[in-house]
Amino acid sequence: MDKPSVPRNIARLLLGLILAFAGIGHLTFASTEFHAQVPPWVPFDADLVVLLSGVAELILGVSLLVMIRYRVMIGWIIAAFFVAVFPGNIAQWANQREAFGLNTDTARLIRLFFQPVLVVWALWCTGAWGTWRKREPASRGWTSLSRER
User: Three-class SS string for 41-79?
Assistant: First the structure.
């Protein structure tokens, strides 16, 4: 695996810090705000969803910062996490829930367009996308992406 460039490393560190900060926010000072993103159709208590997603974000953020050898696999997991929580962003917009200063339908709609940017950011800064594109055509599975050799 190629050594990541300085811009990719900076982007990886920044994303890791943002995820860790968001995870801490879920668990402490912003937990009420995160309730606005829990869709009403989720069959679990909103407090539990906010708690578990906060723990996940904290673990993913710290992993991105310290588990550099596994950055490709972590990049795929973070991208999947961003896709998994996207229905919460849609629910916030559809149900007109105010949180994080998103107090208009327009602001909530614009926020939706940033989720794909986060997915691309995770795949780019970890080298996950590039590793996938460079794989051997005959290779299958995730084992070749799991860690740097």
Answer: CCCCCHHHHHHHHHHHHHHHHHHHHHCHHHHHHHHHHHH
Would residue 16 be called left, alpha or beta, if left means φ above 0 and alpha means ψ between -120 and 50 degrees?
alpha
* Amino acid 70: pLDDT: 95
Segments making up each domain of the chain, as ranges: 6-133+140-145
Helix (H, G, I), strand (E, B) or coil at 99: strand
The residues, any chain, with a CB within 8 Å of residue 112's CB and separated by 6 or more, are: 86, 89, 90, 93
Cβ-proximal residues to 64 (8 Å cutoff; 6+ apart), any chain: 12, 13, 15, 16, 19, 71, 74, 75, 78, 126
Task: Tell me how far the alpha carbon of residue 137 is from its chain's centroid.
Answer: 28
Splitting the chain (149 residues) into consecutive groups of 10 residues, what average pLDDT does each group show? Answer: 84 98 95 88 94 97 96 97 94 89 90 95 93 66 53
